[in-house]
Amino acid sequence: MGKIDPADVGRPLTVGEVARRSGLAVSALHFYESKGLIRSVRSMGGQRRYGRDVLRRVAIIKVAQRIGIPLAAISAALASLPEERTPTKADWSRLSRLWRAELDDRIAQLTRLRDQLDDCIGCGCLSIDACKLRNPLDQLSEHGSGPQRL
């Protein structure tokens, strides 16, 4: 690694610099910006410039996506953070607590699904009428076969 020029510390980053430092494609950064997850300003020449806080925000987005958090939830979480400030460890702790509950729910759902799958293989029916995996939550089946909403 090269030396850091003190004059560069407060300088906004180009989209290429953010892409290189975050490991994301430029198109992904443009997509995140179009969804309001990150923000840029335009230079005199019309080019995007990002504050350095965007690197931490992009890291949060990447981690959240990796664990399966929907973009809408990520957007809401990022909106709760102060603008123009790099998210802190305390910010991350608060966000991760929110997402931990969602992950716990998803783990419980997957565990139930796994357990039902074992039962389904055991019965061998795979019936569209009776199988909770093949036809989950089919409440209209109680009213008979065929279309029930006309």
Please describe what this structure looks like.
The chain is mostly helical and 150 residues long. A hairpin with a 5-residue loop joins strand 2 and strand 3. It holds the Pfam family MerR. It comes from Telluria antibiotica.
Task: Describe, in short, the structure shown.
The chain folds into two domains: 10-87, Multidrug-efflux Transporter Regulator, Chain: A, Domain 2 (Orthogonal Bundle); 89-135, no CATH class. 50% of the residues lie in helices and 5% in strands. The protein is built from five helices and three strands.
Which terms summarize this structure?
mainly alpha; Multidrug-efflux Transporter Regulator, Chain: A, Domain 2; 2 domains; 5 helices; 50% helix
